[in-house]
Amino acid sequence: EDERIVAEIMGRRFFPDLITHKTWEGFHFAGHEIRITEATDCYGAVVWPSALVLCYFLETNSKQCNLVDKNVIEIGAGTGLVSIVASLLGAFVTATDLPELLGNLQHNLLQNTKKKCKHQPCVKELSWGIDLEKNFPRSSCHFDYIMAADVVYYHPFLDELLLTFDHLCKNDTVILWAMKFRLEKENKFVDRFQTLFDLEMISNFPSLNIALYKAMRKGRMKA
């Protein structure tokens, strides 16, 4: 079953027939052909398999996870694939990442969502743990969903990442988080995450070493 679904997920990717001056990859999600421009000189501008896993879940569970008119923020949006799919599924999306990635992110969102979405997605800078209240004030920012794909890997900002999840998440916010398990340090982040949030694994793909989680604030999952 794992191999069958993984083959289906990876089958959503396609490549250009002709090599052009711009490097791009194609994906089929939400009834659209999505073209993503990548930059191979940094991690944040490459599409990782966890993003495909999350996009596949959003598309194939659109009834139980109805994004129409929902307020969604993606942290570590990178190339923007997850944000694009959420937008095509009817959400109002804020795609966030580091300042040096925003140009490519904006290009991909505009190219793949203009005149195709109910709500045009927006791009905003978010450096984890920095100026959170200033840029995303708790009093006025309410997100129905926080989405994250492959934000936990070998980097020195895991404390700031947890702080960011905590700041953005209200009592009724749902976190959808796809994670590839690599090293023990990153795995321990899951334990720390569970001190603040109830965590439920909703999909697991051992052949990819990727799990998809749903999370809510501690004690709110059943409610």
TrEMBL record:
GO terms for biological process: methylation. Keywords: Methyltransferase, S-adenosyl-L-methionine, Transferase. Signal peptide: none annotated. The keyword Transferase applies. One of its GO terms (molecular function) is methyltransferase activity. It holds the Pfam family Methyltransf_16. It comes from the Eukaryota. PANTHER family: HEPATOCELLULAR CARCINOMA-ASSOCIATED ANTIGEN, METHYLTRANSFERASE-LIKE PROTEIN 21E PSEUDOGENE-RELATED. This is MT21E methyltransferase. It comes from Platysteira castanea.
